[in-house]
Structures are given as C-alpha cells and as structure tokens.
Amino acid sequence: MGETRQPHLNGAYYGPSIPPPSNSKTYHRPGRGGGGGGCCCNPFSCCCSCIMNCICTCICQILFTILIVVGIIVLILWLVFRPNTIKFHVTEATLTEFNISNNTVHYNLALNLTIRNPNKRIGIYYDKIDASAYYQGQRLKTVELPTFYQGKKNTSTLNAEFIGSQLVPLGNNEMSHYNEDRTSGTYGIDIKLNLRMRLKFAFVKSSKVKPKIDCDLKIPLSSNGTASGTFQPTRCDFDWR
C-alpha cells in the first residue's frame, strides 16, 4: 500500500506519537536530591564528630591508666611501709573532786596518756591535740595538749588536767546514775581526743588526717589521799574517719 497523503500537510503522516511506558523507572543522578543513601551531606560535621569521638576515647583511656598507676603506687607503698594503727592508752588517772550541786559539776581530774607509734618506717606529726572530758554525754571541759613529732617505734607521754566547774543539764536518769557512781566511789568519765596529724614516709609527708580517739574510763574518787579503788590502765578506741 502506498503512503496516504493529505492535501493540507506538507510532509508524510505516520500516525499519532507513542506515549512512554507507565512503569518506566525514573533515573536519579547520584549525589543529588534525597536518593543518596547513607552518604554524609556535610563533610565538615562528619569530621568534627569523628574527632570528638577520638578525644573522648583518649581521655577515658588516660584516666583509666592514671587510676591503675595510682592504685599500683598505693599498693607498693602499703607493702613497703606496712602502716600499723597507733595505740593510745590512759595509764594513770587521779580524780580528787567530783560532785554535783544545782546542776553544776565540780571536778578535778589528772590523766597520764601514752601514745605508741609501732611503725618502723613512719613518723608522725601531731599538729593539734584537743582533749575533752565528758560525763554522761555532757562536756565538762576541753584542754589543748602540746604538739610534737613522734619518731618510729616510739612511745610518748602526755599529761592532761581538767579542773573547774561546769553547768550541765542532768535529768532524772542522769542524776540516778550519778548517785550510783557516788555510792560505788567510781565515776564513768569519757575522754575524747581530736587530732590533726600527718604521717611521714621517708622524705614524703602525707596530707592532714583527723582521727578520733575515745577513752571510756572508770575512775575511782580519791579523798584525803585515799582512793576508793584502783584505776585500771585503759586502751582507747582509734577511729580514722
């Protein structure tokens, strides 16, 4: 068959144009639009994130290493010096006056206190020593004792005197205990020591520590040179806190 020509057209007519298939896939050029997958859009922010992660990891590793080194040093020092607890004893106690009238306690107490440093490689600086006397939880008086340096394997002796009177609010129970002590002739008096001290390891001095010492004493009353009993030397409780 020959080509069909229409008089109003200049060229040949081949029929209507064919539309593209409806299921055709749209092509996207990589790197443009939203189809880039996991690609980082901002290289600068990616670099910053990586650097911060590296810095945090390095800091954690450094801190962990420091803790390990410090722990090893402390362990080595402990193995070398082997610190032993300091021993406090009240070896003598003389109570020549103790009576209560109108809620006022009148007292006269003298103590001999020994401090034993059993360590072979550690010296001790006693920068402050406060001794306080208590009766049934009520403070009678605080005295400041002399400071000193105590060498290795050394025993030192301190003297403390508590003389005076103190107004104390004693209730019925406290007065009942006081009457029992007066009848027995022996009084329960508590001596507390507040210390500020430093330890000396060879040429190294530690920071200040503040241990608490508690001496629970039973002291017989002496009247006209005659005591109602015998004082027993007492070891004090030591608490580093």
From TrEMBL:
It is found in: Membrane. It comes from the Eukaryota. Residues 1-27 are annotated as: Disordered. Keywords: Membrane, Transmembrane, Transmembrane helix. One of its GO terms (biological process) is defense response to other organism. Pfam families: LEA_2 (PF03168). The keyword Transmembrane helix applies. PANTHER family: NDR1_HIN1-LIKE PROTEIN 3, OS05G0367900 PROTEIN. Residues 113-213 form the Late embryogenesis abundant protein LEA-2 subgroup domain. Its main location: membrane. This is Late embryogenesis abundant protein LEA-2 subgroup domain-containing protein. It is a single-pass membrane protein. It comes from Perilla frutescens var. hirtella (Perilla citriodora). The chain crosses the membrane at residues 62-81. One of its GO terms (cellular component) is plasma membrane.
